[in-house]
């Protein structure tokens, strides 16, 4: 009995952390003059959409919302917001801001994403925005990626390439990489909105530049975030990886994968 209460309390705490983070992020980063907004995927983004819808149609009717997959498409439509497609955003144009969740966030704001299998479109939308804002609950923050999210880095792959990609991941030191199974009741592999499969590849915690300065990178078998990401994306058959890394939107004019801010 005591245990189940604790589990329920923890669940309530997590939900309230997601909600508070979402409302604060929207308050700080959604300016009324903005017209193009990216909306990510997952359970935390539900609160982002709730916060945006709560601003009222006087504010939101001038805005268009760009989803990262079928789930966020449904969320936007259900909230009565104006749904647009990133494929219709003309070349040379950017979203004003994009909000999305994460599976893990490290001290440098590198992210693991893709727990919901939407990482490819999520990266396109994040990189199309002038500002990308991450919203997550307190469980997601950790000093190094791979510490809190133990399931592995989600990697979107062409189905025919999956066995070769698994071989390469093992060679690179991944511990038991595996093809993600379908949702309960669905046989076979999970199929993404883009017709691809997901491989989850666990690696030892990923080092940051500060670790190299202090010498921890000498530990054998440990990758830095940037080195691993650069190597993963080059494997033939890999469409996109769930590491959002490199420079954030404060440092690059466009194409940033890392958020300018993370809310917990
Ligand atoms: C989906 C994602 C999600 O943003 C991530 O899994 C976080 O989800 P949640 O907010 O439900 O914890 O990357 O591909």
Automatic annotation (TrEMBL):
Belongs to the ribose 5-phosphate isomerase family. It comes from Parathielavia hyrcaniae. Gene3D superfamilies: 3.30.70.260, 3.40.50.1360. Its EC number is 5.3.1.6. NCBIfam families: rpiA. One of its GO terms (cellular component) is cytoplasm. Keywords: Isomerase. SUPFAM superfamilies: D-ribose-5-phosphate isomerase (RpiA), lid domain, NagB/RpiA/CoA transferase-like. It comes from the Eukaryota. GO terms for molecular function: ribose-5-phosphate isomerase activity. This is Ribose-5-phosphate isomerase. It catalyses: aldehydo-D-ribose 5-phosphate = D-ribulose 5-phosphate. One of its GO terms (biological process) is D-ribose metabolic process. Pathway: Carbohydrate degradation; pentose phosphate pathway; D-ribose 5-phosphate from D-ribulose 5-phosphate (non-oxidative stage): step 1/1. Pfam families: Rib_5-P_isom_A (PF06026).
């Amino acid at each position: 009995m005591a245990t189940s209460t604790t589990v329920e309390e923890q669940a309530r705490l997590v939900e309230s952390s997601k909600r508070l983070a979402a409302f604060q992020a929207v308050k700080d980063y959604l300016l009324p003059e903005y017209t193009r907004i990216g909306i990510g995927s997952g359970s935390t983004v539900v609160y982002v959409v709730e916060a945006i819808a709560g601003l009222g149609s006087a504010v939101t009717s001038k805005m268009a919302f760009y989803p990262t997959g079928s789930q966020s498409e449904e969320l936007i439509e259900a909230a009565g917001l104006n749904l647009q497609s990133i494929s219709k955003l003309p070349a040379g144009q950017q979203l004003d801001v994009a909000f999305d969740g994460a599976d893990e966030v490290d001290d440098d704001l590198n992210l693991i994403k893709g727990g919901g299998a939407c990482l490819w479109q999520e990266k396109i939308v994040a990189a199309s925005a002038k500002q990308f804002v991450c919203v997550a609950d307190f469980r997601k923050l950790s000093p190094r990626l791979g510490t809190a999210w133990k399931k592995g880095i989600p990697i979107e792959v062409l189905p025919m390439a999956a066995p070769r990609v698994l071989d390469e991941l093992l060679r690179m030191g991944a511990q038991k990489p595996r093809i993600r199974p379908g949702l309960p009741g669905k046989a076979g592999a999970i199929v993404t909105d883009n017709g691809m499969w997901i491989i989850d590849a666990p690696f030892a915690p990923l080092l940051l530049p500060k670790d190299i300065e202090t010498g921890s990178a000498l530990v054998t078998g440990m990758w830095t975030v940037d080195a691993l990401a650069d190597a993963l994306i080059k494997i033939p058959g890999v469409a996109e990886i769930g590491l959002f890394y490199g420079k954030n939107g404060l440092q690059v004019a466009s194409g940033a994968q890392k958020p300018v801010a993370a809310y917990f």
